[in-house]
Design a protein that fits this description.
The chain has 512 residues and is of the alpha/beta class. It starts with a helix and ends in a 7-residue tail after the last strand. It has 2 domains: 19-316, Purple Acid Phosphatase, chain A, domain 2, CATH 3.60.21.10; 323-505, 5'-Nucleotidase, C-terminal domain (5'-nucleotidase,  domain 2, Alpha-Beta Complex), CATH 3.90.780.10. The protein has a 6-stranded mixed β-sheet with strand order 6-5-4-1-17-18, covered by helices on one side. A 6-stranded mixed β-sheet has the order 8-9-11-14-16-15, covered by helices on one side. A 5-stranded mixed β-sheet has the order 23-20-26-22-27. α2 (48-60) runs antiparallel to α9 (303-320). Helix content is 27%, strand content 28%. The longest helix has 18 residues, at 303-320. β2 and β3 (44-45) form a beta hairpin. Bound molecules: zinc ion (ZN). Residues 73, 104-106, 163, 207, 248 line the site of zinc ion (ZN).
């Protein structure tokens, strides 16, 4: 059993042997605070102060240096991290003693300027051997392909790799000017350089993962039936590496490929991997590898990390509990076309100074209560922090977008402003929109032009709005949440949502 070999490795230590312990997390996604999980039976798990305590304990119980690595996607996902655009996460990681991190796709969510600021604040390097300035073979100045870490007489090369498919899953402007190359050749190149520089161990941190079949296994047991990109990358390597720690799929992975351990530690700070490596006589042994659960109630959280996370939590609470407006009546999200959605579309239209607006229902995440609304209520209404953008579209493109909003079942799945759409729910898809009228009563022709406000997600073709993808989009400079807050505040208080029907079903009698 894997755990049993841990003690054995300690007993077998021979003079001159180089030893290294590597602990790793991935996809923490801003989960800096301990919390129960769906599977923890009410017990709190994780949080950066708790992880830091486990890292310290792992280092203290090992006779040799310990490295702490991240497989990426560290910042995006919770209010405590997102409201500082990841600064809170970086400060917590600094204090928790991370030594290096692979660059995850979600690191790009707030744009390259913000990412570079976060990288500057990090006391550890961000690594991406396969990230290049477009049209070159040079890495951007703010990432490094690999680093040599000298600790306790051991030289460890850490090679970092970004997700090769990042440009296909983030907004185009987030990765403008960058190219993501194949992983394996970039690792091979870095590993060659690292060995030539005298590395005792070469460890790969990669934002790429696997999925395993897990029939009720304990976290520390080996995984079975694993497939995934990280294993394909491991198979494609020509240079020898000693350990691969991954991420991205949010799974627990404890496996190996060609004798090289491949590990992934779940997500949301609910797991961390531990691997011990020993090298003597030109041979490297993997003594122990596992994923463990950082139970929050079985350690004393690291006080320095807890202080940082606690301060951010208080700041965020002060913001999230602050009142922003008051609402005359509770608003739900029932039906595809509802007053709350119309109110939001009005907000988009207002801040973008557009003739029309469209808000996809998928971006509307909760209803709102009557009475005082807090920033936290609005944050939960629209947690994605998308920019409101404007596109000058033809009537024909808008009609195609509205057809998409009618989806498969002929029911609207978006809320609009500035227009009234007459549609025939029974008509075949593509022929359901009968007319689009502007607020002044004019009917929009297919060749007419109209300025349309929507989220950058919709404008980039998300949720099936591919007809908008090719149309140039101007940023309003206002985030979706701020657009709706600004609109709510501009209304007489308590604010009321619009009751006018903007999607009007009509039955067109084919006999007439
Ligand atoms: Zn990811």
């Amino acid at each position: 059993m894997l755990l049993a070999s841990c003690a054995a490795a300690g007993a077998q230590q021979v003079p001159g042997e180089k030893r290294l312990r590597v602990v790793h997390t991935n996809d923490v996604h801003g989960h800096l605070l301990s919390a129960p999980t769906p599977w923890s039976g009410g017990r709190p798990v994780g949080g950066m102060a708790v992880l830091a305590a486990y890292f310290d304990s792992a280092a203290a119980h090992f006779d040799g240096p310990t490295l702490v690595l991240s497989g990426g996607d560290d910042m995006q996902g919770t209010a405590v991290s997102n409201l500082s655009a990841g600064r809170a996460a970086i400060q917590a990681m600094n204090a928790a003693g991370y030594d290096a991190a692979a660059l995850g796709n979600h690191e790009f969510d707030w744009g390259q300027d913000t990412l570079r600021a976060r990288v500057r604040e990090s006391r550890f390097p961000w690594l991406a051997a396969n990230l290049y300035l477009a049209g070159t073979t040079r890495n951007p100045a703010w990432v490094r392909p690999w680093v040599m870490i000298r600790r306790g007489g051991v030289k460890v090369a850490v090679v970092g790799v970004a997700l090769a498919e990042t440009p296909r899953i983030v907004l185009p402007d987030r990765v403008a000017g960058l190219e993501f190359g194949p992983e394996a050749p970039a690792i091979d190149r870095s590993a060659r350089q690292a060995r030539a520089a005298g590395a005792d161990f070469v460890v790969v941190a990669i934002h790429s993962g696997a999925v395993c079949t897990e029939p009720g296994r304990a976290p520390e047991e080996a995984s079975t039936g694993c497939t995934g990109d990280v294993l394909d990358v491991a198979r494609a390597l020509t240079e020898r590496v000693d350990l691969i720690v991954g991420g991205h799929t949010h799974r627990r992975v404890v496996t190996e490929q060609g004798g090289v351990p491949v590990l992934e530690a779940g997500s949301y700070s609910e797991g961390f991997s531990v691997t011990d490596l020993a090298r003597s006589g030109g041979r490297t042994r993997v003594a122990y590898r596992a994923v463990r659960v950082p139970w929050a109630d079985s350690v004393h959280p690291d006080t320095a990390v807890a202080r940082i996370v606690g301060a951010w939590d208080r700041r965020v609470r002060a913001v999230s509990e602050s009142p922003v407006a008051s609402l005359a009546a509770a608003l739900d999200t029932v039906g595809g076309d509802f007053p709350l959605g119309r109110l939001m579309a009005d907000g988009f239209r207002r801040v973008a100074h557009a003739q029309a607006a469209l808000v996809n229902d998928g971006s509307i995440r909760r209803g709102l209560p009557a009475g005082t609304l807090t920033f936290g209520d609005l944050y939960e209404l629209q947690p994605f922090k998308n920019m409101v953008v404007v596109q000058d579209v033809t009537g024909g493109v808008l009609r195609a977008a509205l057809e998409n909003a009618l989806g498969k079942n002929g029911k609207p799945d978006a809320n609009v402003a500035g227009i009234t759409v007459a549609y025939d729910p029974a008509a075949p898809a593509g022929a359901r929109v009968r007319s689009v009228r502007l607020d002044d009563g004019r009917e929009l022709g297919d060749a007419d032009r109209i300025s349309l406000a929507s989220s950058e997600f919709v404008a980039a073709g998300g949720d099936g709005y591919t007809m908008l993808r090719g149309v140039a989009a101007r940023s309003s400079g206002v985030l979706d949440i701020d657009a709706v807050i600004a609109h709510l505040r501009a209304l007489p208080q308590p604010a009321a949502a619009p009751t006018d029907k903007r999607w009007v079903p009509v039955r067109v009698d084919p006999a007439r």
